[in-house]
Each structure stands twice: as C-alpha cells, then as structure tokens.
Fold this sequence. Notes:
By secondary structure, the chain is an alpha/beta fold. The protein contains 7 helices and 9 strands.
Amino acid sequence: xxxxxxxxxxxxxxxxxxxxxxxxxxxxxxxxxxxxxxxxxxxxxxxxxxxxxxxxxxxxxxxxxxxxxxxxxxxxxxxxxxxxxxxxxxxxxxxxxxxxxxxxxxxxxxxxxxxxxxxxxxxxxxxxxxxxxxxxxxxxxxxxxxxxxxxxxxxxxxxxxxxxxxxxxxxxxxxxxxxxxxxxxxxxxxxxx
Length: 193
C-alpha cells in the first residue's frame, strides 16, 4: 500500500480501512518501518506562517528499488511508463539530499491550503533554509506556488532539481541544478571530522 502511495500525504484511516485493521495498528507498523529506516516520514513545515497548512506528513519508501520491486516494476522502460515514476524520482532525490545534509539539519515539505508548495525544505543548524523543488523534466516548469512557499519560509537558497546536466538561473534567485551538483554544495557545508 505504501508503494502505491509514494510521496503522498499519510492517511492512516484510509490505509486501515483498505487493510481491514485498526488505525492504531497502522500507526504502530508505520513507526516500526520508520525505525527500521525503510520508510521516511517527511514532516510538514509549520514555522513562521499564519496560513492554513497541510498537517499530515508525507511518506516515502526510502529505497526506490524496494518501491519498484513491490510494484512489480522490473525494467527501466516499464518504470518510465508507470504512474509512480515521478513520485519515485522525488523520493530518490529527497533521500539522497537528506542523507548528505549536515548533522542536525531538519527536513520538511511545504503545502498551504492555498496551493503554495515546496517538495523539500532543509533547515540547517544555523537556521538557514533551502527551498528545493524536484522536477523529472529536462525543461522544468516552476509554479508560482514554489516562489510563494520560498518567500513564506524565508529561504536563503532556492533550487530546482532536474535530471539535466547544466546549472542555470531562473527568476527570483532560483537555480536549476542536477542532484550531483546540489550534493556537492551540501558536502561543502558538512565539516569533515
């Protein structure tokens, strides 16, 4: 069930109903999967805003290979034609970024009831924030909602992650960048021990 709901808002009641179990049972199993590092529960941003915000976390199976196996996706061709492709890409990108973020960094997503949204917010120990939007397109189109979300969280940096090779600027001090280049920027923030 979680594989089919990759990158979706967590709705324990819906899962419980579909599986014919109690909601508390779902919560316990989900906690167990999170503790075993199989599932990531991405919390909603809740600071510095007077807007109505989505309060449910998003859930991701942390290993995209496991997601694909659970869905019976065996080839790249079948993945590219599957509706989960974009959500799988989003989960893969988030997992790589969060794993390389400096120690004590916090990860969130942003979604207001008005539609402003951001796929990933990194809040660093020095309180600086990065707003990150993930697009699986070589020509990513950024919605106004990302810029609104970035303004609401007072993002210090704004990035659009895409599968291309080039890094180039967009409006409002936003940079389009690939995953490897962003990970290098993150790595430069992490002190070596």
